[in-house]
Amino acid sequence: MKKILYVLLILAIACTQNEKGTSANNNTPSKEKELITLVEQFPDSALLLETLVQYYRENGDYSNAIKIMNDALKKDSSNARFWDIQANLLFENADTLGSIAAFENSVDLYPKPDNIIPLGILYAQTKNPKALSFADGLILTYKASAEKDAFFIKGLYHSYTGDKHIAIDYFDKCLNLDYTFMNAYQEKAVALYELGQYEASIKVLKRATTLQNNFEIGYYWMGKNFEKLNKKTEAIEAYQKALMYDSNYIEAKEARLKLVGKN
Questions:
Q1: Stretch 165-179: mean pLDDT, rounded?
Q2: Which of 92, 134, 155, 247 is least surrounded by CB atoms within 10 angstroms?
Q3: Taking each helix axis from N to C terminus, what angle separates 113-125 and 80-92, rounded to the nearest 10 degrees?
Q4: Which pLDDT tens digit goes with each residue over 86-102?
Q5: What is the pLDDT of residues 25-83, one digit of tens each?
Q6: Distance, CA of 155 to CA of 162 (rounded, Å)
Q7: In this predicted structure, what is the pLDDT of residue 21?
Q8: How large is the C-alpha radius of gyration of the chain?
Q9: What CA dihedral angle connects 186, 192, 194 and 197, to 10 degrees?
Q10: 110 by DSSP, 3-state: which?
Q11: Cα–Cα distance between 205 and 222 in angstroms, integer?
Q12: Closest by alpha carbon to 214, among 185, 243, 192, 191?
């Protein structure tokens, strides 16, 4: 089905360009206008709709992306994928409560791990005890494929509610199941940092960055730990590594500039 839709997309673009005549060569419409035209020509094509939404998302235009999904959901509120897309858009646009509501609709329609896990994580980050019941449900129903994520959700919930030691135990359970789980390394290191166990946090992050040397968040938190230990040279080097893998890492850039200025 997807192959057929891609063929339709190519043909539709060609037809759109032909309809504009020879003047199109001198006045080529923007990709946005072409995509809007195609969505209007093929209103039942979810692929075209998602392509336009992704175009807006990649260009940071969340207002238009969210509006398109709102309109689509008014027409088809039973489409779990649309709710999932909308939830991610709202989350990226810093609307946590809106994202949770959209994920809840997605889970109601399609209660599978891919939908349950992000909602459980948001519940944990907002200190909602539903996170724990969601995690238990994942273990009960999808233990083989989602136990690691269930432990991660439990760890997050306990970390955000202040039970750092319990959280660390759950992050360790995640890593016992999957030693490459970078999010678990990150959250364990953050919990240790907040407990004032800076050397232990650095040890966790060194393990993570050894497994994945482009783990920029790991280097950033390593820098924060070195700062607490008054090791400014090591902190600057850690922030520089974070920026080497992500030149737009604002927090790392500001932290490095602050230390360089002091020196």
A1: 97
A2: 247
A3: 30
A4: 999 999 999 999 999 99
A5: 444 348 888 888 888 899 889 999 999 999 999 999 999 999 999 999 999 999 999 99
A6: 11
A7: 42
A8: 23
A9: -140
A10: coil
A11: 6
A12: 243
And the tokens for 198?
């800076």
CA distance 193 to 196: 5
CA dihedral 141, 142, 148, 154 (to 10 degrees): -30
Residue 4 has pLDDT above 90, yes or no: no
What is the spatial distance between Cα 226 and Cα 236, in angstroms, rounded to a whole number?
Answer: 9
Go through the chain and tell me how many residues it has.
263
H or E element that contains 74: helix 62-75
Task: For residue 59, give the 3-state DSSP assignment.
Answer: coil
Other CB atoms closer than 10 Å to residue 188's CB: what's the count? 28
Quote the pLDDT of residue 181.
97
pLDDT at residue 262 in the model: 59
Burial class (CB in 10 A: 0-12, 13-18, 19+), 215: buried
24-41 b/e with 16+ CB inside 10 Å = b? eeeeeeeeeebbbbbbee
Q: How far apart are CA 146 and CA 245, in angstroms?
A: 30
Sign of the torsion angle spanned by Cα atoms 41, 32, 6, 75? negative
Cα 203 to Cα 33: distance, rounded to the nearest angstrom: 51
Distance CA(131)–CA(121), nearest Å, equals 7
Q: Look at residue 263 in the predicted model and tell me its pLDDT.
A: 53
Angle made by CA atoms 67, 68, 72, in degrees to the nearest 5: 115
Residue 258: CB atoms within 10 Å? 13
- Tokens read off for 263: 């020196």
Chain-centroid distance of CA 150 in Å reads 17
